């Protein structure tokens, strides 16, 4: 008969979904046979973690290095001025400097002023004790390179505020005092007054007596009230404060007023004290 007969093989060859057509197409072969592009390998965990470790170690070394010099022992700043300075000029400049500070904390500046005064008297031990009590650190031991408070704030002072230059010029008044001191008269008067005080033979007239209220730094109170002659020097006040406060022989006292350590060899009035004002008795155990 005239009908056509197809076989399964013929259907498979003519079908578009036959395996031969699916894998025999040239484009399919091209896609299949194209080489795969190699992507760069990500850095290994060991490599990527090395840098933070190195950075952390370096930061640790830097912190340790800073810590080793964080609070060096205090020392005197020695320098030579290029211009002429007299002692009275230096005193005025220091007073003006500390009175005009607007940055940092006022109590830190007041403490630094006291310490500068102690350094001028050569009392490094007491100066260091005050710095330690106020948590003030001097990384290099020299104020010229700055000091830091407990919060890390920097406090800097110029050289002429920190100390007198080696080539300081004497004022006319200082030269007169120096000449008077050469004959030993002032020393003799002081020695006589000290002996009278020790023996209890010093007689004070009512009109020449003042009452000084002293606030001791090593206790919460009460204040001690000391009768003192107007012509008696601060050293006598120190001795009476020690007696009144029943201090042991190891206790050392410095009298401070308005943020300034007073000189032992001068009277209160000569150093700006006004009657009725309280003085601070800074107590140190040595």
TrEMBL record:
InterPro entries, A to Z: DC-UbP/UBTD2_N, DC-UbP/UBTD2_N_sf, Ubiquitin-like_dom, Ubiquitin-like_domsf, UBTD1/2
Chain segments annotated as transmembrane: none
Species of the source: Letharia columbiana
A Pfam short name: UBD
Domain (Ubiquitin-like) ranges: 210-283
Disordered: annotated span: 1-62, 176-200
PANTHER family xref list: UBIQUITIN DOMAIN CONTAINING 1 PROTEIN-RELATED (PTHR13609)
Bias (Polar residues) ranges: 15-39, 46-57
Protein name: Ubiquitin-like domain-containing protein
Domain of life: Eukaryota
